[in-house]
Design goal:
The protein is an alpha/beta fold. It folds into 2 domains: 184 residues, 3-Layer(aba) Sandwich (Rossmann fold), CATH 3.40.50.1000; 94 residues, 2-Layer Sandwich (Hypothetical Protein, Haloacid Dehalogenase-like Hydrolase, Chain: A, domain 2). The chain has 9 helices and 14 strands.
């Protein structure tokens, strides 16, 4: 990786030439909610990654198999690059030598049964998906078409919660994100981390695990100083990451609590806000 290499040239800036880690959320930050990738955003990300001291790391709630195509689009499938998936529960390293194109660097799991039982008591009709790394999701009932990446494996409810999981997703197409947030506040969830999405979508992860916890491990492995970290995101699962980064950007459409957690605010995803933010980073830090 370029981060580990000595930067060429006899005259190095004491700060600007130090390694810089830029952590980027995907949906609502890099991609529009319909999956569209702006050419301006793609061009800006590639330009940032061309700097020898910059390490762009995708940090997303997406599964590994849903993350890799985005990295491919952006030209980020370079050997040795880290990616944080499943809201921090799965960290991978790009490895062209493997059949999958990556190797698992770290996987954190939890027992999903207690939380699933508690949520089903409150929302009996909720849809539940348990992530299967590199495959897709186990489900007791199918999700709306196109909402889950990879294979949907239909299993009995008992099997759904029989094994440790990296991530459990709950979905109620007839509800709202506000209703999910109220339900979580009412029942309390112990032994897990959770994030409510922009729609009626709730992700559970192992306790203490977030994009930030995984990125901190990546930062240390890459030898990046804490003050040379940047992050951009737009949703509640980005809160810890935006607080963790020395320079955190909230997208313009982010909810108030996300804006509050960030240091700076940029334009909306429709306005190519990420490109604006990265242009600021280049001017200030490179």
């Amino acid at each position: 990786m370029t981060t580990h290499e000595n930067l060429a040239g006899a005259h190095r800036h004491p700060v600007r030439d130090l390694p810089l880690l830029i952590a980027l959320d995907v949906d609502g930050t890099i991609l529009h909610h319909d999956g569209h990738l702006s050419e301006r955003v793609a061009r800006t990300i590639r330009a940032m990654d061309d700097h020898p001291q910059v390490e762009v790391v995708i940090a997303t709630g997406r599964s590994v198999i849903a993350t890799l195509p985005v990295m491919e689009q952006l030209g980020l499938m370079t050997p040795g690059r880290y990616a944080v998936c499943s809201n921090g529960a799965v960290t991978v390293v790009v490895d062209p030598e493997t059949e999958e194109g990556y190797r698992l660097e770290e996987v954190v799991t939890f027992d999903p049964a207690p939380a699933v039982s508690l949520i089903r008591q409150e929302m009996p009709e909720v849809l539940i998906a348990v992530e299967e790394i590199g495959v897709g999701f186990k489900v007791a009932r199918p999700f709306p078409q196109g909402e889950l990446w990879g294979e949907e494996i239909l299993v009995p409810m008992e099997e759904l919660v029989a094994h440790p999981a990296t991530r459990v997703t709950f979905r109620d197409p007839s509800s709202t994100s506000e209703a999910f947030a109220e339900m979580v506040d009412r029942i309390g969830l112990h032994g897990v981390s959770y994030a409510v999405g922009y729609s009626a979508w709730l992700d559970l992860a192992p306790e203490g695990v977030s994009k930030a916890s995984a990125l901190e491990q990546v930062r240390r492995r890459l030898g990046v100083e804490p003050y040379r970290t940047v992050a951009a995101g737009d949703q509640r699962n980005d809160l810890e990451m935006l607080t963790w980064a020395a320079r955190g950007y909230a997208m313009g459409q982010a909810p108030p609590e996300v804006v509050e957690a960030a240091d700076l605010m940029t334009g909306t995803v429709e306005e190519d806000g990420l490109a604006e933010a990265l242009d600021e980073v280049a001017a200030a830090l490179l």
